[in-house]
Amino acid sequence: MVFSPIRPDELTPGTLVGNWRILQQLGRWGHGAIYRVEDVRNPGHPLALKMSLRESEGHFDEWTARLKASHPNVVRLHACGRWPRSREGFFFVVRDYIRGQALPGWAEKVNPTFLQVVALMSRLAFAIDHIHGGDTWHRDIRPDNIRVRDEDGEPVLLDLRAGGNEGADTLTQMPLPPETLVFRSPEALRFLRVNWGRRGLRYYFRPSDDLYALGATAYWLVTGHSPFSPSLSLDQLHREAELRMPPAPWEINPRVPRGLGTVILRLLSKIPDERPRSGGALSAELMATMSAGNRMVWASRAFAWEQSEGGQASRRILVPEPPRFYSVDGPRLPQVVHFNPPANRAAQLTTPSPRRARPPRHLDESQELMGPWSRMM
User: PANTHER family from the entry (predicted)?
Assistant: First the structure.
């Protein structure tokens, strides 16, 4: 067994990952790192390489061509593979390097008007339709995965995953964190809970899942808070997300136009069929709502500016107080655990598993295993 002497999240400038030369590390997190790279065959054009801390399963060739399709609001994927060995390495993807700010930083700096919010939602809605047209789902739409491009102010969806290919694994290694769960649809969370412990099952994503996540992102954009607080206990977070609607956006931020808030609540409906059927339908609904409203209201900023002695360069937006979530009595959501029959367990013991490369020895043992929730998503 051969182990890599270098951690995938500690690559230094000059290191080659296939045809891609590392120029700079842009960030790291518990599951891997992202680097600015260039193609040695065409140097001078910076790209971004995202490296996972574990080997990914599945066949990538089927969806690589789909994600390479060009769209102005979807990041372009150039290549994917494994490192340091093509068959036994850590999974990586290479995409365009987007010069701009992540949505949270952009919103803090710009304090967008509601007209800008509608424009951003419409652009992302059509981008989602484009992705779905290639039988691929994004599966992780949230503020941190949206970047506003410097050159034209257009939003760009990052971190695409092979949702259309249900046999391809995700990059998520551990159980889904609360800050990610709040952007998951109620039906996806219900699937995770009901099928906890079952082997070999995967949630089949639909366009309504990505549209729900876009609605949760829009809710955050106009209120400054997620529809449900990530600080809730895991049981309460699941119960709230599956059974209760969040407070209306205008109840948190009175500046939000009622028409816009109503569309956002439709996106967050517990019943998938009550959400807009497509990104195009959502965009048309937003345009109709905006045209019927008071243009002065739509042209106002989402938040008030904090008064600062340092001038505009140092001012900040005033985000309203978050909604209060009380631990009230409500329907208890049972945790369903499924066990394999003895005959199935015996069959698994006698069936040799395919050979898999292991990560370096100095990684935590907990990082070698993927949580059951992640396996199903």
Answer: MITOGEN-ACTIVATED PROTEIN KINASE KINASE KINASE 20-RELATED, SERINE_THREONINE-PROTEIN KINASE NEKL-3
224: CATH: 1.10.510.10
In a domain, 52, yes or no: yes
Residue of higher predicted confidence among 54 and 90:
90
Q: Write down the pTM of the prediction.
A: 0.81
Alpha helices in 225-341, H assignment, sequence order: 234-243, 249-252, 258-267, 279-291, 295-298
Query: Which residues are CB-contacts of 46 (< 8 A; sequence separation ≥ 6)?
Result: 23, 36, 37, 38, 97
d(CA 31, CA 363): 11
Q: Which residue has the higher pLDDT, 158 or 342?
A: 158
Does a structural domain hold residue 253? Answer: yes
Question: Would you state the pLDDT for residue 364?
Answer: 38
Tokens of 268: 């967050």
Cβ atoms of 315 and 305 closer than 8 Å: yes
Query: Of 53, 25, 52, whose CA–CA distance to 37 is shortest?
Result: 25
Q: To which residue do tokens 């059509």 refer?
A: 126
Residue span of the structural domain in which 134 resides: 16-318
Residue 99 near residue 26, CB atoms below 8 Å? no
**Tell me: the pLDDT tens digits for 79-136?**
888 888 877 788 888 999 999 999 999 999 999 999 999 999 999 999 999 988 877 7
Enumerate residues 6+ apart whose C-beta is below 8 A from 237: 178, 181, 182, 228, 229, 230
pLDDT, tens digit, 9 for 90 and up, residues 318-344: 999 987 765 555 556 666 655 555 555
The amino acid at 356 = R
CA atoms within 13 A on the CB side of 101: 9
Residue 164 has pLDDT above 60, yes or no: no
